[in-house]
Design goal:
By secondary structure, the chain is α+β, with helices and mostly antiparallel strands. 27% of the residues lie in helices and 29% in strands. The chain has 15 helices and 38 strands. Helix 2 packs across helix 4 (136-144). Residues 1-67 have low confidence and may be disordered.
Length: 605
């Protein structure tokens, strides 16, 4: 090509691309060396340069996309490790399999007893006993949740701590056993009445372990393979000594300083300080928070017949057995002071020195159990019965006590889901309640005690509920074996420390029916039959021990006994339904040998 007669070399057709420096976030800028200057020539068209620049960008983006796809391969980000095991780039299932394989390799270490020091005592705890373990699925989920930028995922690394679980209740029970006599139970605050004199019980802290801190320490120590120290801490009730004194001065003392007058449209009743003291209660919750309340049921009992002048007590419908079938005994409605309103209004006036009058409205009071509700319970047939024999006739104190308890329980109805307590039903069994002195076991020997013999009724009731298939909640066999009772499946009782309880675990109501003769007591359970049969299978007696002879000082408190052997035995309650065994429950007990008690000195050699 010639321009003005001068020959010019051909133009370079290679495009010149201007590149701008690019940097990822948090990265240092990368310097790009500019391309050499293109020889002068005619200008190139703009569309061509843009098209070529777009092509280069596409290549760059494609590279980034490829890196991102690589980085995000699998459910767990690349570079993620747990316990030194690479889980990155794997699916959750593969990651879980890899982690389980690592745990198998570490099994000897992870299953080894863990040394725990509680206070000043050292104990060894097997991880399996407190369900101390690594939750594989939760750990993999935590690892998969760690998301990052593709470049970080591509070249970075991260360590995820395993998720450790422990059975907090088992751990707490284990530590408390290990605590032994180092610990101290919390003294809960309250205010009690001796007669009409209120007395404070001040709070004292428990010396114990903190369950949450202990669990964290055990999990961390186990993972690290080091001994664990669980310190003892003081745990105070929520109510302070100062708050107890405030309640004492502002409520408890003025409450019994004088009577309260209860007025209604049917007349008035004077509530004396003794009845107020009986009904005023200071309840404390598990945290030690003290709350005053008026127990209207106890107040009614303390007032006795006084309320009968203004109230008509409702009566529940009931059942009696007539002609071999349950027969309904109708209930009746009543008119009573509303218990909730009475409790609230009494608490409002008790702190006052004057104006101690409560105006109450008598309202209709329906019985708790109406005939309609009774019909829904489905009590239609006898499902079990049990009889035990006694000696001495109805005139003996022991027989009298057995029959007295039977009369109080006769006709009791237990609704579905309810728990029946014998102590709760009869209340205290003392002289005022019609009970007499008879032999009871106290400190390993027979001595006279009020209510002796009620254990025989308890055993009879226990067996009736046992053979009805009802749930055993609480019972305790005798220390010694008595041949008049079935071994193992029998129960003693002692107010207020030993109780017998059963739960109605059927969809039907339960009626307790009692009857007696001059030499026997019978308890029958009426309901709707749920099971085909309930039977007992015994294991052999074992560890048989012979009684020793003990000579006691003669006198009115000495009761001789022939003695009996001691032994251990198992009894199995076998419950069948629809021709199949659906439940097999084991009951075990160890009887002490009952000494042969002789009222008199040892014979001389």
């Amino acid at each position: 090509m010639t321009l003005y007669g001068e020959k010019v070399p051909p133009a370079d057709d290679r495009p010149t691309v201007q590149v701008t420096a690019v940097s990822w976030p948090d990265d240092e800028p990368v310097a790009v060396t500019p391309a050499p200057a293109r020889p002068a020539g005619p200008p190139r068209s703009r569309p061509r340069r843009l098209l070529l620049a777009g092509g280069v960008a596409a290549v760059v983006l494609a590279g980034v996309a490829g890196a991102g796809a690589y980085a995000y391969a699998g459910d767990v980000p690349r570079g993620t490790t747990v316990l030194g095991t690479e889980l990155g780039g794997r699916s959750r299932a593969d990651a879980a399999q890899a982690l389980r394989a690592e745990l198998e390799r570490r099994a000897a270490t992870l299953n080894a007893p863990l040394a725990i020091t509680v206070g000043e005592k050292r104990l060894e705890v097997r991880p399996a006993d407190i369900n101390l373990a690594i939750d594989v699925d939760a750990t993999v989920a935590a690892a998969a949740a760690a998301r990052a930028h593709p470049v970080s995922r591509l070249v970075g690394s991260r360590t995820v701590d395993p998720v450790v679980t422990v059975d907090a209740d088992r751990l707490d029970a284990t530590l408390r056993r290990g605590l032994g006599d180092q610990g101290r139970e919390m003294t809960m605050p309250t205010i009690i009445f001796t007669g009409t004199t209120p007395k404070p019980v001040y709070p004292k802290p428990a010396l114990t372990v903190d369950p949450s801190s202990a669990a964290d320490a055990v999990k961390a120590g186990w993972l690290a393979g080091r001994p664990v120290t669980v310190p003892l801490v003081e745990k105070w009730p929520a109510t302070s000594r100062e708050e107890v004194d405030r309640l004492l001065g502002e409520l408890a003392k003025p409450a019994v300083a004088g009577p309260v007058t209860l007025t209604t449209d049917r007349g008035s009743v004077t509530i004396p300080p003794a009845a107020i003291a009986s009904g005023l209660r200071f309840s404390v919750d598990d945290a030690g928070k003290l709350t005053p309340r008026m127990d209207v049921k106890r107040l009614r009992t303390a007032l006795g017949s006084r309320l009968a002048k203004i109230e008509v007590e409702p009566k529940d419908a009931g059942l009696t057995i007539s002609g071999g079938k349950p027969k309904v005994v109708p209930g009746r409605a009543g008119r009573q002071v509303d218990s909730g309103v009475l409790s609230r209004d009494l608490l409002a006036v008790l702190p006052k020195a004057e104006g101690r009058t409560v105006a109450a409205e008598l309202k209709p009071a329906e019985p708790e159990l109406t005939e309609a509700k009774l019909a829904e319970l489905g009590i239609k047939e006898r499902v079990s019965t049990f009889t035990t024999q006694f000696t001495g006739g109805l005139s003996s104190p022991r027989s009298h006590n057995i029959i007295q308890a039977a009369k109080e329980v006769d006709g009791a109805i237990v609704k579905p889901g309810e728990t029946f307590s014998l102590n709760g039903h009869t209340g205290e069994r003392g002289y005022d309640q019609g009970y007499r002195d008879a032999a009871v076991i106290m400190n390993g020997k027979l001595v006279p005690g009020v209510g002796g013999g009620v254990s025989q009724f308890t055993t009879t009731l226990f067996n009736a509920t046992y053979y009805a298939g009802l749930e055993d909640v609480e019972h305790k066999p005798h220390s010694y074996y008595f041949s008049r009772y079935p071994a193992v499946i029998e129960s003693t009782i002692y107010w207020p420390h030993l109780d017998f309880k059963f739960r109605n675990n059927t969809p039907y109501g339960v009626l307790i029916d009692t009857s007696y003769t001059a030499s026997s007591i019978t308890v029958s359970i009426w309901s709707t039959k749920v099971y085909d049969s309930v039977k007992t299978e015994y294991g052999p007696r074992r560890n048989i021990t012979q009684p020793k002879t003990v000579h006691l000082e003669p006198g009115p408190t000495c009761i001789s006994a022939a003695g009996s052997v001691g032994f251990a035995q198992d009894a199995y309650r076998v419950i069948k339904k629809d021709g199949k065994v659906i439940k097999r429950e084991k009951f075990s007990w160890r009887y002490d040998p009952e000494p042969r008690f002789v009222c008199g000195p040892e014979p001389s050699a």
